[in-house]
Amino acid sequence: MPISFPMIVMSSQLVVAAADGVPKFDIARSCKLDVAATAGLSVDQSMKSCVNDEQRAKRQLAGQWTKFPASSRASCTSQESIGGTPSYVSLLTCLQMGQWAR
Fold first, then answer.
1. How many whole angstroms from its chain centre is CA 90?
2. Spatial CB neighbours of 68, under 8 Å, sequence gap ≥ 6
3. Which phi and psi angles does 84 have, rounded to 5°?
4. pLDDT score of 1
């Protein structure tokens, strides 16, 4: 089924809207999925560590969000939406790598 022009415009506006502020991710859900995929640490220890890392990255993003180019914010936010388990740590890494490449 071909994608219509209005659908493309609407979905592109969602990406732009997400680039206006730090997106909201479900940290608990993402960490549960990450912990389920890892081995070695206890579940409680892994979950706590993951949540702490995500919260730290979210705070860092909140303080630096407007310093990243809008195109990078939109692109990295869009990439985080792929796969179903978005991560503030991964989003921050994407944005920082974009700065280093400049």
1. 6
2. 95, 98, 99
3. 90, -10
4. 45
Q: What is the pLDDT of residues 20-44, one digit of tens each?
A: 789 999 999 989 888 777 766 566 7
pTM here? 0.73
Closest Cα partner for 95 from 17, 8, 23, 12?
23
From the list 38, 24, 40, 19, the residue with the least C-alpha distance to 95 is 19
- What is the share, in percent, of the chain residues with pLDDT greater than 90? 52
Residue 76 buriedness (CB in 10 A; 0-12 / 13-18 / 19+): buried
Round to whole Å and give the CA distance between 58 and 102: 23
Q: Give ∠ CA 95-98-102 in degrees, rounded to 5.
A: 145
Q: What are the start-end ranges of the H helices in the chain?
A: 5-19, 27-37, 43-64, 70-80, 88-100
Residues whose CB falls within 8 Å of the CB of residue 41, separated by 6 or more in sequence, listed in order: 49
